[in-house]
Design a protein that fits this description.
The complex is a heterodimer of chains A (227) and B (315).
Chain A (H helix, E strand, L loop, with lengths): L2 H16 L19 E3 L2 E7 L1 E3 L2 E5 L5 E7 L7 E8 L5 E6 L2 H6 L2 E6 L7 E6 L2 E5 L2 E4 L12 E7 L3 E6 L3 H5 L21 H24 L6
Helix pairs in contact in A: 1-4
Chain B lengths: L1 H31 L1 H4 L16 E3 L16 H14 L3 E3 L10 H7 L6 E5 L5 H9 L6 E4 L10 H15 L3 E2 L4 H5 L4 H7 L6 E2 L9 H19 L4 E6 L10 H12 L4 E5 L32 H9 L3
Parallel strand pairs in B: 1-2, 1-8, 2-3, 3-4, 4-5, 6-7, 7-8
The chains are: A alpha+beta (227), B alpha/beta (315).
């Protein structure tokens, strides 16, 4: 096998298998650029393909926390977003919803449908530098028969932006103690777009260039792919 | 000879193997790609697409429950001129009794150039049936029944009537129930199957939402969930916010409610045109039914009207 070809193919395989979903906050292992449901450090990422019905884009997340999302973003051709779910040791949940810049420009509002296990939590989202609380809407999905204690339901939260959201037990530190949280990784502008998505590709280019030089160097040494 | 036979068997085995492989590929394709067999979304019929505002219209000063109450063409005309001046281009009615059945025709003359849905209150009324068919040229679609499924009529009875009206008029036909019926009700499958378009009723008031923002969030959450679950575009037949009674509900809040709702790009009919005092003459808890109008019973506008006029009005 041609040594150039061998090394370049080897690097290409390595690069593609190391690509992560491009939500910020760490790399996810797996094959393919968009890896769904992959976990590292308690974080799960979902690539959500959006369908269009009338004035709504909607996608089935079927994640551990989020079930569905509907989005009002008129006149956009983008049909996918990424959702990152992560939980801390206190049970608080952090959600990061990212999309392309064009999508963000067209974004009007969204509704997030969360699984009932998280219905006791409250959602806060950061809007223009301030945390705002969103009230839950409980929607039964089955008929409430007499004598039936629990009914299957889903919880909806209306969102006015993408980016980082938190599902928390106690909202007051976010609403009243704004400054206490300003240093945390909340609603960073770079998290709200796909700028971070470029990094894996930039690194890919660097690695390919390195592969090319190594290949030349080995060729100069007279190495012939093991023969 | 034996060699030829073996070759024939081998060819047969090759063909079977090839077919099996092909079938396997097809099964694999369908099992790994939900997009392959996902149904396309169902949109509203073309004739029901609206660009301007729409209103749920019951004439003022007319009491359907009072046999002595008379409805004239002039009265309908005056009402519709008022509504058209504000900017309404679509409407839904509730009945096709003799005078009510004239509304679509008069509305066309008064400038309602978009969607007109004719309501048929009693699916078994031969008068309403005859009037509905007669007025088909002015109508874009029919809504048979209103919050009566399993109460005033059975699903089987209504299905027969809906199919018959489709056949006679060639127009889309639906019915209306509260939106939770389409998501969790006993008849949800029936509603999704038999409705040419989904036309639910959505009132945050009855879900105990006083605050306009919370009420709108509730409406949007239900609307969007129905879109997701049914994969169909949804048109809301009634969305409203009462005024005057109880005290937490007032004209400012009604205005705020409709302004917020309008920002969400939902297809809906304002509920309703005029206050209907006769609806409040029942039990105490239902007194609120009298005050959902964007106009008072005497035809004077409430605070939301200038905003609607500014946005869509022709005057």
């Amino acid at each position: 096998m041609n040594s150039h070809l061998f090394i370049i193919v080897f690097f290409l395989v390595s690069i593609f298998s190391a690509q992560s979903a491009f939500a910020s906050g760490g790399m996810a292992a797996g094959v393919g650029t968009f890896t769904t449901g992959v976990s590292d450090s308690g974080t799960k990422r979902y690539r959500v393909v959006l369908d269009e019905t009338g004035q709504r884009l909607h996608g089935s997340v079927n994640g551990e926390i989020v079930e569905w999302i509907t989005i009002d973003a008129p006149d956009t051709d983008i049909r996918e977003i990424l959702i990152r779910e992560s939980k801390d040791s206190h049970g608080d949940v952090s959600l990061l919803i990212t999309a392309g810049d064009e999508f963000l420009e067209k974004f009007n509002q969204a509704t997030l449908y969360v699984k009932p296990a998280y219905s006791a939590l409250k959602l806060v989202e950061r809007v223009d530098g301030y945390w705002e609380q969103r009230n839950p809407v409980f929607i039964p999905l089955t008929q409430n028969n007499p004598g039936q204690k629990l009914q299957e339901h889903i919880v909806a939260f209306q969102l006015t932006s993408l980016g980082e959201k938190k599902l928390v037990e106690n909202v007051s530190p976010f609403i009243e103690g704004e400054n206490n949280y300003s240093g945390m990784s909340v609603g960073n502008i770079s998290d709200r777009n796909m700028t971070s998505a470029l990094w894996p590709w930039v690194m890919s280019g660097v690695l390919l260039t390195m592969a090319w030089f190594i290949s030349h160097w080995m060729h100069a040494l007279g190495w012939r792919g093991g023969r | 000879m034996a060699l030829l036979q073996n070759k024939g068997i081998q060819n047969e085995q090759y063909r079977v193997g090839k077919m099996t492989a092909l079938l396997f590929r097809i099964v694999l394709l369908f099992s790994v790609s939900p997009l392959v067999y996902a149904e396309s979304p169902v949109l509203l019929p073309d004739t029901l697409q609206m660009t301007g505002p729409a209103i749920a219209y019951q004439p003022r000063e007319y009491v359907p429950t009072d046999e002595a109450s008379v409805l004239s063409d002039e009265q309908i005309m005056a009402d519709l001129q008022l509504l058209a001046g504000v900017g309404f281009r679509s409407l839904v009615t509730y009945s096709a009794t003799d005078e009510m059945a004239k509304i679509p025709g008069i509305a066309r003359k008064e400038g309602f150039d978009e969607t007109i849905i004719m309501g048929i209150w009693d699916p078994f009324s031969s008068d309403e049936w005859r009037n509905a068919v007669k007025n088909a040229p002015f109508v874009d679609g029919y809504c048979i029944g209103n919050e009566g499924l399993g109460i005033r009529y059975t699903p089987q009875e209504l299905a027969v009537k809906m199919e018959e009206l489709r056949r006679l008029t060639g127009k889309p036909v639906t019915t209306s129930e509260p939106i939770d019926s389409y998501i969790s009700g006993h008849h949800k499958e029936w509603l999704l199957k038999h409705s040419d378009w989904l036309f639910p009723i959505v009132h945050p008031y009855w879900a105990n939402y006083e605050d306009p923002a919370k009420g709108v969030a509730w409406v949007v959450a239900y609307h969007d969930l129905l879109v997701v679950l049914a994969n169909r575009q949804v048109m809301l037949k009634e969305v409203g916010h009462p005024t005057v009674f109880p005290v937490e509900f007032n004209e400012n809040r009604q205005t705020e409610f409709f302004q917020l709702l309008d920002s969400h790009r939902i297809s809906f009919f304002f509920f309703e045109a005029f206050d209907q005092p006769w609806k409040g003459n029942t039990v105490e808890e239902r007194r609120v039914e009298a005050y959902w109008g964007i106009f008072r019973a005497d035809g004077t506008p409430k605070k939301v009207v200038p905003w609607i006029t500014k946005k869509w009005g022709k005057l």
